[in-house]
């Protein structure tokens, strides 16, 4: 309770989330609905976890949406007969009842059509459309977000004999058939298309779907943006953010306008060994990526993969993607997300502050009438940042994500230089890979100096 009280009282008060709430209440409802989605992937449909305990932890972290699935094969177990299995309703409806939105994936093949391959024949496409209509009508207003398939561009979820990537042409044919059927069933839902791997984007699969007309048969584009197997710095959040900006620019080129854009899977697994990421660094990457996502107006939501570790094998990447361990013990990323999620969900991005060091990131946000800055080092090394204010100094609140926040007064003296005097309108803070949030009235504050402060035992970024 101590952490929750500190966060919900101090953060709301000092960073003016109370003021932000008042400002949001005065805005039209449509504007409020544009809040950025802080999401996480779950596997409730596969029987993973304890539903009520997981949902409790999910809400505490500030996660506003979960991504799960209702597979075609489970809904149509007898050809031509559609029925919702008992295990799906509870997680969808309980999540929604607790204010957690559900993004449902409509996916995977059915053994009664095309021999269990991806739906490509007219009969199989019609079967998939009926299944999609049934799911949308079944859940009604409870579910507002749907995604067509999961990683069509690779072999995931397919029977052994069809373990190969699917073509962009076949995907768009399915999309063109199912999209109008879903919208006819419920015009108010958002239908995402794409849901491809980062490799599918880099190899041109996504752009090929766009050339074939995908943007005319969806409401938004989603991708998966994993880069944890790349070498540093390409495996970092800044490189990932720059790459995703390029994806959005590609979409804009074909649309002539912004295309609503979502990342429905992303994470840095904390397994031991090749391509694993230290849990503390993975938490820092999470914070930085979510904050960077807010710098793009067309970026609408990001779902971390995933919420709960799949197992206990320390060397296995698939067992170590979670924010929490298999028994729900929080990993560092959980506490970090708890601290940044209010800013990510509700703040308005202003700009990046100019500094003399390109590896120092300083993003400015507005929350209601108040300011919130996020500062970090992109190369994962420490930097001393000297701030200066022109107005009479007012105390500011500082918090390194994942740690308690503290109130600090202005005043700086480099006492290591014995002749230095106190400068009353300056403030010093050492910033590393984990973002620091600074809040209050920062309208007259600037960054006047950045000094590298190497650690005695510098942490070498994973290669």
Please outline what is shown here.
The protein is of the alpha/beta class and 463 residues long. The chain has helices at residues 2-14, 17-25, 29-32, 51-60, 72-75, 88-97, 122-139, 168-185, 198-202, 205-211, 237-255, 279-293, 332-346; strands at 37-41, 65-69, 101-106, 145-148, 190-196, 220-224, 261-266, 299-304, 348-352, 360-367, 370-377, 383-389, 396-400, 406-408, 426-431, 436-440, 445-452.
Describe this entry's structure for a reader:
- With 463 residues, the protein is α/β, with parallel strands linked by helices.
- The protein has two domains: 1-30 and 349-463, Golgi alpha-mannosidase II (Immunoglobulin-like, Sandwich), CATH 2.60.40; 31-348, Glycosidases (TIM Barrel, Alpha-Beta Barrel).
- It is 32% helix and 21% strand.
- The chain is built from 13 helices and 17 strands.
- The protein has helices at 2-14, 17-25, 29-32, 51-60, 72-75, 88-97, 122-139, 168-185, 198-202, 205-211, 237-255, 279-293, 332-346; strands spanning 37-41, 65-69, 101-106, 145-148, 190-196, 220-224, 261-266, 299-304, 348-352, 360-367, 370-377, 383-389, 396-400, 406-408, 426-431, 436-440, 445-452.
- The strands form three sheets. An eight-stranded parallel β-barrel has the order 1-2-3-4-5-6-7-8, surrounded by five helices. The chain has a six-stranded antiparallel sheet with strand order 9-10-11-16-13-14.
- Strand 3, helix 7 and strand 4 (145-148) form a beta-alpha-beta unit.
- The longest helix has 19 residues, at 237-255.
- The chain starts with a helix and ends in an 11-residue tail after the last strand.
């Amino acid at each position: 309770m101590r952490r929750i009280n500190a966060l919900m009282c101090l953060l709301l008060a000092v960073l003016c989330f109370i003021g932000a709430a008042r400002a949001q209440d005065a805005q039209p409802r449509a504007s409020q609905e544009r809040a950025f989605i802080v999401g996480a992937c779950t596997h409730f449909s596969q029987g993973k976890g304890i539903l009520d305990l997981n949902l409790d932890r999910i809400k505490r972290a500030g996660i506003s949406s979960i991504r799960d699935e209702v597979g075609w094969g489970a809904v149509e177990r007898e050809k031509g007969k559609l029925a919702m299995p008992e295990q799906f309703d509870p997680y969808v409806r309980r999540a929604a009842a607790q204010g957690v939105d559900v993004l449902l994936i409509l996916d995977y093949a059915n053994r009664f059509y095309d021999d269990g391959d991806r739906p490509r024949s007219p009969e199989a496409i019609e079967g998939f459309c009926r299944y999609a209509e049934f799911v949308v009508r079944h859940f009604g207003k409870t579910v507002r977000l749907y995604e067509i398939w999961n990683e069509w561009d690779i072999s995931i979820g397919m029977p052994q004999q069809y373990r190969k990537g699917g073509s962009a042409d076949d995907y768009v044919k399915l999309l063109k058939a199912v999209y109008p059927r879903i919208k006819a069933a419920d015009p108010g839902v958002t239908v995402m298309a794409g849901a491809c791997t980062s490799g599918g984007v880099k190899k041109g699969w996504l752009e090929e779907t766009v050339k074939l007309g995908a943007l005319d048969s969806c409401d938004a584009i989603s991708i998966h943006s994993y880069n944890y197997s790349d070498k540093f710095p390409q495996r970092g959040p800044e490189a990932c953010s720059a790459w995703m900006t390029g994806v959005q620019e590609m979409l804009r080129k074909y649309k002539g306008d912004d295309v609503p854009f979502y990342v429905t899977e992303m994470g840095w697994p904390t397994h031991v060994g090749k391509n694993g990421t230290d849990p503390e660094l993975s938490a820092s990457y999470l914070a930085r990526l979510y904050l960077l996502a807010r710098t793009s107006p067309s970026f609408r939501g990001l779902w971390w993969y995933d919420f709960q570790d799949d197992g206990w094998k320390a060397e296995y990447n698939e067992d170590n993607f979670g924010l929490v361990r298999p028994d729900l013990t929080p990993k560092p990323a959980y506490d970090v997300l708890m601290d940044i999620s209010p800013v990510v969900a509700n703040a308005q991005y202003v700009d990046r502050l100019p500094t003399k060091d390109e590896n120092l990131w300083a993003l400015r946000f507005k929350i209601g009438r108040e300011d919130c800055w996020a500062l970090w080092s992109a190369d994962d090394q420490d930097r001393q940042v000297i701030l200066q204010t022109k107005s009479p100094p007012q105390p500011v609140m500082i918090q390194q994500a994942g740690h308690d926040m503290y109130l600090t007064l202005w005043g700086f003296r480099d006492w290591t230089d014995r002749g230095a005097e106190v400068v009353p309108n300056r403030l010093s803070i050492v910033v590393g890979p984990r973002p620091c949030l600074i809040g209050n009235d920062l309208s007259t504050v600037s960054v006047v100096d950045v000094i590298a402060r190497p650690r005695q035992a510098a942490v070498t970024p994973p290669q």
